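Dear colleagues,

As part of the handover before I leave the project, I'm documenting each prediction I ran so the next person doesn't have to rerun anything. This entry is a single chain, and its sequence is reproduced below.
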Amino acid sequence: VQLQASGGGLVQAGGSLRLSCAASGSIFEDNSMAWYRQAPGKERELVVAMTSGGTTNYADFAEGRFTISRDNAKNTVSLQMNSLKLEDTAVYLCNMRWVRLGARYEYWGQGTLVTVSS
């Protein structure tokens, strides 16, 4: 399974950015897709996850500003980020995971850099 993320870039504080991630390969249909981020000198943290059934889990900092969406047929996930803050600057990584027959599968994309400037 390969994940290809895109959409990062430079944006001013208060602006918006949309990230996209496309998964390809042998994918189990009952899965979760998520966005994580890692800022310089900090640990990787969950931004938001969404199951193929539509259940979402937002980090507190993302609630109300970020919106995840996915297309199960195309195995894509997007992240709409609004009202961006300086502290949102990070590498954003796409993640896909599932459990099948007791085995856990997890895949990561290469990451896309989001830089929020003042």
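The chain has a mean pLDDT of 97. The CA atoms of residues 99 and 105 lie 6 Å apart.

All the best with the project,
I.
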